Amino acid sequence: MSSLNNTNTEVLRFFLIGIPGLEKSHIWISIPFSSVYLLSPLGNCTILFFIKTEPSHHEPMYYFFSMLSISDLGLSLSSLTTTLGLFLFAVHEVYATACFAQEFCIHLFTLTEASVLSAMAF
């Protein structure tokens, strides 16, 4: 019987629903996400700028801070784009390849951040 069933399916897109029941409030929900999305890169770029321009900050501790800042920058840029697309622009679908790439980036930057914090501990 199983040899007769040759069904082959392939997932190409995922459909995002956001927060069920609050579809009319997605604009209001997007305001905190947008502010975090704007402030996080601004703060991390400010940290990187001060470490780069100030000669007294060219020490190993500040290099670790810059690595943490870069990993946090990558983490926020890779994770909040889909969320803002859903809440601000009502983009309810994401391609599977984009989802897997986003998942890879989130895990990569989280691993990088954990590795830098582990290196700072020793």
**Average pLDDT:** 87
Q: Describe the biggest sheet?
A: 2 strands, antiparallel
The count of strands amounts to 2
Give helix and strand order, one letter per element, not per position.
Answer: EHHEH
With strands numbered from the N-terminus, the spatial order across the biggest sheet is 1-2
Q: Compute the number of structural domains.
A: 1
Distance from first to last alpha carbon: 60 Å
Question: What portion of residues belong to β-strands?
Answer: under 5%
Radius of gyration over alpha carbons?
Answer: 20 Å
Structural class: mainly alpha
Q: Assign a percent range to the helix content.
A: 55-70%
* Backbone shape: flat
Helical segment count: 3
Unreliable stretches covering 5 or more consecutive residues: none
Task: Explain what the structure shows.
This protein has 122 residues and is mainly alpha-helical. Helices cover 69% and strands 5% of the residues. It has helices spanning 26-53, 60-89, 96-121; strands at residues 13-15, 93-95. Helix 2 packs antiparallel against helix 3 (96-121). The longest helix is centred in the middle third of the chain and has 30 residues, at 60-89. The protein is flat and about 70 Å long. The model has no long low-confidence stretch (mean pLDDT 87).
